[in-house]
Amino acid sequence: MDRKEFRDLASPTAAREALDSLSLEGGVDRVSLAEARGRVLLARLDAELDVPGFDRASLDGYALAARDTFGADEADPARLELVGEVHAGEEPDVALESGQAVEISTGAVMPEGADAMVAVERTDVDENGDVLVRTSVAPGDNVMFAGADVAAGERALGPGTRITPRDIGLLSALGIDEVPVRAPPKVGIVSTGDELVRPGNDVDSARGEIYDVNSYTIAAGVEDAGGEAVLYPHAGDDQDEMERVLREAANECDLVLSSGSTSASAVDVIYRVIEEQGELLLHGVSVKPGKPMLVGRLESSAYVGLPGYPVSAMMVFRTFVAPAIREAAGLPEPAAATVSGRLAREARSEEGRHLLLPVGLTNDGDGETLVYPVDKGSGATTSLAEADGVVEVDAETDYLEAGESVTVQLFSPDVRPPTMLGVGEDDPTLNRVLDRLENPRYLSVGSRPGLRRLREGVPDVAVVAGPLERELEATTLGEWEREWGLIAQAGNPNEIDELAALVDRDLRFVNRTTDSGLRSSLGAAIADLAEERGVERHDLVEAIDGFDLGLRAHESPARKVIAGEADAGLGLRETADRLDLGFVPVGSQSIRVLTNPDRIDKPGVRELESALETIDELRRRSSDD
Amino acid sequence: MDRKEFRDLASPTAAREALDSLSLEGGVDRVSLAEARGRVLLARLDAELDVPGFDRASLDGYALAARDTFGADEADPARLELVGEVHAGEEPDVALESGQAVEISTGAVMPEGADAMVAVERTDVDENGDVLVRTSVAPGDNVMFAGADVAAGERALGPGTRITPRDIGLLSALGIDEVPVRAPPKVGIVSTGDELVRPGNDVDSARGEIYDVNSYTIAAGVEDAGGEAVLYPHAGDDQDEMERVLREAANECDLVLSSGSTSASAVDVIYRVIEEQGELLLHGVSVKPGKPMLVGRLESSAYVGLPGYPVSAMMVFRTFVAPAIREAAGLPEPAAATVSGRLAREARSEEGRHLLLPVGLTNDGDGETLVYPVDKGSGATTSLAEADGVVEVDAETDYLEAGESVTVQLFSPDVRPPTMLGVGEDDPTLNRVLDRLENPRYLSVGSRPGLRRLREGVPDVAVVAGPLERELEATTLGEWEREWGLIAQAGNPNEIDELAALVDRDLRFVNRTTDSGLRSSLGAAIADLAEERGVERHDLVEAIDGFDLGLRAHESPARKVIAGEADAGLGLRETADRLDLGFVPVGSQSIRVLTNPDRIDKPGVRELESALETIDELRRRSSDD
What we know:
Chains A, B: Pathway: Cofactor biosynthesis; molybdopterin biosynthesis. Two copies of one chain form a homodimer. Chain A is of the alpha/beta class.
């Protein structure tokens, strides 16, 4: 087996330095004001005119010479001759002489001879049409002089300004309708690997095909960091095609990211192309996940090879590549988004590798933050989707104790930890309840693991189906019944009529794992059947073809039936109805939503409790679907 | 004068309630995965397939039956017959029997008969081609079972999820390439007022025209809040046209915002249209700035009338409208972005109105945050561009003491207070120095006010031109000379040869304000001339036409000369050269950059000090321009 080995791994610091040595900067864009928000100004903008461009009335009232009002008050108003009016958007057609006033509206040009104005509220007009001014004003009162807001020649916005709506106000005032901004660095994304299929197409699981996760995920990460993502057509494992796509991307982009393939041949092509057409600066970095990272140059572009596994790819991207893109885009480091909390479970690192540990967050009953590792493996997309941030553990530390205080770097400042963390059985009614909550997180790990985790004290809630194995100090928030049985092919062509058919006939069955509450109920039903027949439970189980084939999710057996790989599967009536499959009822079981008594007052748990009161309505609705 | 009065002002709470009673929600968009980042999911997405879709090898190595390795170790490896290989993206063409192994690569389909795999690193291949397994593995080791990441039927993403790159990873894994998301609320922006001109066109200042600041600013605010902004053509003050545009916007949008006009006739049209075609819910709110706010319905759309002044418009928008748009867009309230600090100057409110006070931030020498009010008036766009956030003062409080601790709501979580706050003289060389700093703020208030503010202790730095009036305990960070004199029309057609020409000939002159260091130097030069001639300084000043016309900014006199409104203006040689105008040298003056000794170690001040060392280079460059 010919494999590239990653020996002499670089330290995270060396990897950052390698990336810093590359230039990712894009060029210049000229954008209109309507598109300028959030962009980064490339050059200083100076005011080319005064704002306002004229001495401007700040109120509705009368323009006058301040000295004509000196000494005036309520008892002894100054009387001025009204000689005209000026409205906003008009050129004054009148000039004032001593003892005169002009009616003026907000925003209008102050007429010649006027050096102040008085608000209409402080005046009266007498029977002759003269203006009585009941206060004295000083020169400049209620007038905004030309250039008082921004003066011609003033430095308006500096280079590197990230344009806010307020800056757009300033640019508008200056009449500027187009600004030079940094072009976002153009980042080409090349995915390789024969097994990858772009979303929207069909995958052939028998051939080991999977959807290409990295391309769109990394593209979204690139745009989050202020880059422009360009997705190149999927190159498969065809070496010539891969080389062609890599070179095309390198010619068109400031940075090329390759990702996806774990096959040795793909890695070989990338090596060869980088070494022939560019330069390899770094090969392998001692972080976990993420070891197989490449950094180099290709043609005139920077190049980073990301690991194939989605979690590794995103972690390497986030830790090393995103900061370089942000820097090139001229964006500041995002506001510190960290949360401190208590580690809910111990975590182990590996000898000498810097650990990037995805974690989820929740609050315990006292409002203290609990931090729990999310470890479904580097190959699992849910390891990130179900996490809120990362705990970094340096290479020297190989063990974090449960209860230790840790700092979590949130994935972004926008991350909102879930209001309620639930674990346990998967159930269609439960899913509709969850839809009513603000920001819940639910991990469908099955009834048994759910109960165990509730006892361990991390989640707020466990959802359990079927009989409880042992008593638990928990409060029931809600409960409902669900009908379960055998899911058969559409129209039940095998005419399966009862559970015993699995034992007595030659039918291929698909079960659920022992974690599932459905499996517990099935076990109980088989025990009843054994007692009825006066045989051992074990004998019946042995007679069922596929009893040991336990699938994790509640719909998976039904999917096997649809695919023709089984004649019957364990499942819910709701699932059979929704997928238009046959259904043989066997029993009904209760689903209970349990919470630890010390979480009962947590707002998210209260919200769940209220939502559970609508279950009857939700179930009625679902039967109308 | 016929004016709408805003009596019985609503409280801020009542204004929020009026807005909450309106529905701004947009419809449904279906977007591709590439466009889904940041959008808000409208409906729950369940997994329609298992991920992975097959039992998948997690490493490069050998697929085998775990029981065949039981008891194996380094000393006594298990020997298995190698019967084939499977690569990623291939359907296995081999099934295992007891004692057999299959070479398998990461991501490949586990062949029938295998229930575990061993990493290649724990194996050898002997001379017969048999595989020696040097460890025992348990069933399931190094295999990711079908559905272990996401199982068919599982709740993948809940409604209301704001889609992150990590969620895009999950959607990709499920093969979903299009998602239903909330359409952003469509917000029509109608600006009115004869005096408003859209940026990019010319303004006629003599007619009192100004650029339309609110349209683009509010549009950017709408997009910041997650809405889609639609700018309608500027309607001027033509009543029929205004009505037509308002109705069109109401028909096409979820919310119509009008803004801009302060003219009574425009307000009248809006009233009439809202009252005839819709409903007026609220008229005037007791906040400052922002009193004249309207809330109502128009056709099937919500309607908010914003005040005309940019600062008032943005404050009302930010306080009342942006939260409603965010809510309709399904976006969460932005992460709390508040900063506490000490108020640097007292602030006064007005009887019974809730005050929204724009403030800037800086740190004093001890790193403590100073909060200073930015009050250039509601009509000034720089009141917001030069501020970092808002201090809210409720209607019951009418006075905040200097030194009081206040909480500042930053304009957004992205706001970075300036690293260095400078005040004082405007100068082209200084502007180039500022361009070299990370995030400076400079307020060109003139030399005298700059010195005063430095003494008061808010800014870090004051820049002063000309002779210092009195000694100050300040450290000089940098100093340079600049040449000043009279700026004449291009080619100096009036053949102005010296300062005395202003006194002796009939020339129209434009001066700078007494705040300016240039004005001080001019005063000194005239005093010298008076002494030379043996006359009073006052007599010379009286003989200069326009000596009292003091403009605020260093380029404004030059602009008056260009406009033909003056024959000569006070200014710098640099300005004359840049604008291709004539220049009559009178003298040179020094510019000094001063800092309070207790700020000398502030990083932004140190950065400025370093940048000032490059002045010679910057000035050389500028003369090459």
